[in-house]
Design brief:
Layout lengths: L13 H11 L6 E6 L3 H9 L6 E5 L3
Parallel strand pairs: 1-2
């Protein structure tokens, strides 16, 4: 196996570009389930099952 270092530089425009792609529908984000912050342990358990089809979201404002 061969490895090489990878350096990622901060890019202030990338989040704006990505948000635009999501807003336009070019990139679609699939959300499996939204959990209240108090359900973080349950969300973690679900993530460990490797059976989720989308993202698991913690809602801190719930």
């Amino acid at each position: 196996m061969r490895t090489s270092p990878l350096l990622v530089e901060p890019d202030g425009t990338a989040p704006t570009t990505i948000a635009g792609l999501v807003d336009s529908g070019t990139v679609r984000v699939e959300v499996e389930r939204v959990f209240a912050l108090e359900q973080a342990a349950e969300a973690h358990r679900q993530g460990e099952t490797n059976r989720t089809r989308g993202k698991l979201v913690l809602d801190v404002a719930r």
